[in-house]
Amino acid sequence: MSKKSRTLTMAVACVNASGVPVVNVCTVAVTGQQYRLGEHYDKARAKCEENGYEGPFVAFDPMEFRYLVSGATKVVKKATRIHKEIEWCQIQEAGT
Questions:
Q1: Domain ranges, ordered by start, for the chain
Q2: Inter-axis angle of helices 65-77 and 79-94, to 10 degrees?
Q3: How far apart are CA 18 and CA 63, in angstroms?
Q4: What is the pLDDT of residues 18-45, one digit of tens each?
């Protein structure tokens, strides 16, 4: 078995320093064995922590990006309703 590593692009849903939910994109290097053991998820979460992001962390590898795209597509399709929800949330936060 080869110990050669491969760089993977990972997407990690997390929280930034301001408390805002974000999807951070990072790269990690893993061998085939590390990939099979799921260590790429651990490395991506650790990289986010090192860069000041906070949990909870949900990491997605390239094979799972379609789930992020699918969820985002559903949100965009409901944009009009969601826009009204955003306005309501903003009013509530402002206390008016």
A1: 6-94
A2: 80
A3: 30
A4: 999 999 999 999 999 999 999 999 999 9
